Amino acid sequence: MTDGTHPWTRRISRASFFLAIAATIVAFGGMTLARYDLIGKMPGFFSLFYSTPVAALAALLGLVALFLNWRKGWPHARPALLGLIIGGFFVGALAVPVLSTSGLPAIHDATTDLDDPPSFTALSLSPDNLRGLSGEDEWRRLHAEAYGDLDTVRIAAPPAEVIARAQSLAEARGWTIADVSAEEGRLEATAYASWLKFRDDVVLRVVEDGDGSLVDMRSVSRVGISDLGENAKRIREFLDELQAG
Predict the structure, then answer these.
(1) Is residue 99 very low, low, confident or very high in pLDDT (cuts 50, 70, 90)?
(2) pLDDT, tens only, 187-211
(3) Phi-psi domain of 201 (left: phi exceeds 0; alpha: psi -120 through 50; beta: other)
């Protein structure tokens, strides 16, 4: 059978494939440009966000095309199958992490001490750090509801030793150290999130407590409203590793 015998099967199969490829190129091209700061982080993120409906359409067309191919003897099965696989994978890779954080609040500042969050000295908070919120009271309420497990930790080591250990962990994670002071019990660094390398600023506060130290941590995103739980996750993982020695 020639291509002309099944024009709609051919057209839909190819449309599925080309839409899936186009969505992938736009999304990952934008994300890669943002990773290397050739464009802004948010434009890079939105290239992924806005490409998702196109990928979903590609997957849907691929499914329709496979049905048409089945009825017509599989004349154009390959592009239809590729469109379904690429589009479906694209949507799944984005939807799964987003859906898993759907219950988290639209905040981007996480800390172990809501009453007295560690303050930045070398780094600074964005003037619009409370963007999307009515004020600090709303931030504290949402934070307490979502991240009530975050709390000050005690480590059986003097502050200078804890800071040195924290610096080693931060450097091993590829963070950029902005300032570190064993005397003041403070470490500030910039961490990076996702392929886009979103910059999140981190401060660690260590206070002597008898023969040990009390440690608080804060992690704040520079851009965006919701961090999808990334800052709280960073604090949990970092303090767990710091406590483990």
Answers:
(1) low
(2) 999 999 988 999 999 999 999 999 9
(3) beta
- Which residue is listed with tokens 């500042």? 109
- Single-letter code of the amino acid located at 7: P
CB crowding 52-87: b at 16 or more within 10 Å, else e: bebbbbbbbbbebbbebbeebeebbbebbbbbbebb
Which H or E element spans position 217? strand 212-221
Q: Quick one: pLDDT at residue 2?
A: 46
Residue 244 has pLDDT above 60, yes or no: yes
The CA dihedral of 86, 88, 89, 92, to the nearest 10 degrees, is 160
Q: In Å, how far from its chain's centre is CA 48?
A: 12
What residue ranges in 60-123 does DSSP mark as E strands? 109-111
Classify residue 5 by its DSSP letter: G
